[in-house]
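Title: Prediction job returns without error message
Component: structure pipeline
Severity: low
Priority: P3
Assignee: unassigned

Description:
Job completed but the reporter wants confirmation the result is attached to the right record. Sequence as submitted:
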Amino acid sequence: MGVSPDAGGPSSGYGEPGWTEQGISVSPCTGSPCEKHTVPGVRHPGDETEEESVTDRGAKGLAKGANMRSTSAGWTTGRIVAVVVGAVLSLVALTFASLGGTALYMATADDGYIDLGTDRYAHRTETYAMASDSFRADKEMAGLYKDLRITFTPDKAGDPVFVGIADKAGMQRYLAGVQHVTIHESSSKGDTQSKHSGAAPKTLPGEADVWGAKAGGQGAQTLNWSVKSGDVAAVFMKADGSRGPSGKVTVAAKIAWLPWIGAALLAAGLVILAGSVVYLMVRPIRRARGRTA
């Protein structure tokens, strides 16, 4: 039989432990509020000091902030898309700006003429004249050719040479009965030519009235021709009408609207570049403001 306080036994006080068969128990409090009893080595909820409570709240705040930063940092899908779009826009902008700058330079250098690279090949014949295939200069480069400049540089600097350009009918009329060649293609291996039989020209080339533009004299000779519609051909001879003209031909063209095209490309490139920079800068700023709001 266990020991238990009875009604007549000594009071253990409000909330003081009494003895039961099972061990320690606490008497129910009556009257005034119970005093809190502490047992050495045992912590109860609410036992924290004010300093400990502040420290715990600070630690929890730091942990929450670190968690927020970890979820917002790193290469998210949105950031990857932004970088890719910005890079593509920048590449397009630089391409436009480069093309525009090049076009402006070409429009101002060498009086706006662009060398077509024909001077790589040497041309020669034992006949009296060399003629090009007829061509439509007004259809070349989508009709952008404005002027042509053709230079004939003889192999021997002292040779008197002639260069002229005429419409197809005028060229055929002058060369009728004249031994000459028509040059179809040129390469480092030589020209692909067609030879036409005949004799020496009856009229010196400089005296003929078939030319739309012409130049003649000793050494390199250059003609300038404003492009017109229709089939035309260029003819190269010795100015005195003798056999064996030989030399290199340089053709340059002036492109219509090239300065305006260059300026438009350059302006478009700069605008796109500025837009890509703004896009790459503003998007992160907005995201940062959204996180701090």
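Comment from assignee: result matches the submitted record. The domain at 114-256 is CATH 2.60.120.380 (Jelly Rolls).
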